[in-house]
Amino acid sequence: MEKGMIIVLNGVSSSGKSTLAKEITRLLPDFFAFSVDDYDLVIERVEDRDNGRLIPVETEYFYYRNVAMFSDRGINLILDQILHNPITLRNFYSALNNYPILLVGVHCPVDELKRREQYREDRRIGQAISQLNFVHQQESYDVEINTCINSMMECAQEIVDRLESTTPLVGFKKSLEKFESTWNRIN
Length: 187
Fold this sequence. Notes:
Elements: E1 6-10, H1 17-27, E2 31-35, H2 36-46, H3 59-72, E3 76-81, H4 86-96, E4 101-107, H5 110-120, H6 127-131, E5 143-146, H7 152-164, H8 171-186
Parallel strand pairs: 1-3, 1-4, 2-3, 4-5
């Protein structure tokens, strides 16, 4: 069975990843949006957070392995997540190495991130700005989009066009090489 394609939307909170994932599914109905935030709800239901009974493994460990299981069964996914620290990166690269991945950088200007946080009222003000310190620092993307300059439909179409292009997808592999180089230096 052929592995399912994985479109990885990487960007800070409020950059438009969730809305973009929905737009992509309109253009590619054989793809399913799978957010790490939604997956965290599964973990939350398993845990007993009120009594401090927490699973002693980071959510991303399970999330990326579930992504691999879907892909192994030929399911195409759109991941809405943030590559934000060495542990997350290690889980991402180890679980999804050798899978077909379109790595997308989702960008949005600081002023617009601030406006979106205030408008949404479900985010800590300043969260997106603080994430800019570690997101997009070493990734090599197959395509980069800006959700402020272009409409969500234009961004989604650009991603679909890149996916349908004959140009090889190399973002994941290049990013993995950078990560391994950095990881080996600090460990």
